[in-house]
UniProtKB/TrEMBL annotation:
A Gene Ontology cellular-component term: cytosol
Name of the protein described by the UniProt record: L-fuculose phosphate aldolase
Pfam family, one: Aldolase_II
Lineage: superkingdom: Bacteria
Gene3D superfamilies: Class II aldolase/adducin N-terminal domain
Amino acid sequence: MTNHRNLAHPRDEIMHTMQRIYRYRMTTTSGGNLSIRESNGDIWITPARVDKGNLTRRDIICVRADGTVDGPHPPSSEFPFHKAIYEARPDLQAIVHAHPVALVAFSICGQTPDTRIFHQAHSVCGKPGFAPYALPGSERLGKNIADTFGDGCNSVILENHGVVVGGDSMSQAFQRFEALEFTGKTIIKGNQLDRVSYLSDEKLAQVQQRQVDFDSFVPGEASANEKERRRELCEFIRRGCRQRLLISTEGSFSARIDSDSFVITPSQQDREGLEIEDLVLVKGLAAEQGKMPSRATLAHRSIYAAHPEVNAVVFAHPVNATAFSVTDSAFDTRTIPESYVFLHDVARVPYGVQYQSDGEIANFVSLKSPTAILTNDGVLVAGTSVLDAFDRLEVLESTAEAVINAKAIGDVNAMPDEVIEELRNAFGMN
């Protein structure tokens, strides 16, 4: 695999990341700040009192290693704690600070989210730390946060404030930030359903030991069908990220090309930024040369092999549906006609089945049962096309959110058996 140099200017990395955080509603117009430290000691940081929803590259400030400031605004008032973190952790090159609602909820309860809820969250974020309250912008706050980072934490909840996350790049810092907020949201939603279950050391190790070795091949000229499937996947992956059905660090989406090949998302690449050339063509047990397909590739392959009528598969982590995956609460689609017709009865997959190489995952999904809840790992959806799979994913998440909201109002009334039978007959589901 080729290691690419990062040629993006710090101004642009900070601007684009802040735009993304704001678009995802993980900060407010006045809240949050980002920074990047260069090897020469210069720190680029967002400005004070500038609309985060309308930030331009010109607004980004550089605090030179000698303390001089370049830019049209003063640097963020939180600059002292950014500087303190960098001094405590020379390995960190980027910091994200914001006030996403789920992590703020943890901060005002004096708690940290347990990342053992998902293998990916635990791998990406590790164990978050907690920094005691101090006045925003004060040296004391900087010391509290830096001390916690100095203990080896990469993500720190600030008491009655928000969160600070560090990484060796802005991309890594953002991914940790997003994964931690997703974890917090899922725990909150899960607690509205039932007791939340966490993963043991053994189960976490089960995923880390997963190895997928592919032969490589040089693909010939792409067919019009392959080109169209690549275009569709990129379009819907980007839409899924922006609708919070997918997160940047996790999930996979594929589309069948023919009986023995499909294109799939690559491993460990930001999902929202994928381009058609980033997707990986898989034929049998071989992957396109120079690319690493998703670690879920064998699961996708098993589903396609067992179900010729399935042409698209997605593993995803929409927060409301994922809340069902971390509890024992049953997911009942018999809520409104659209939910049952699109989703049918939703299966529950025992933890780890999708990581196995025996193809058992294909027993849990088909067009007659196109959706499944993956214990402590989100959801699985199959469809006749990329659009069909994405549509089912949207319906799955909206149904889950409606059920969780309904539980705050009263008892959930499922449609009776005679209504379900009428639907099955009317829509040819028997």
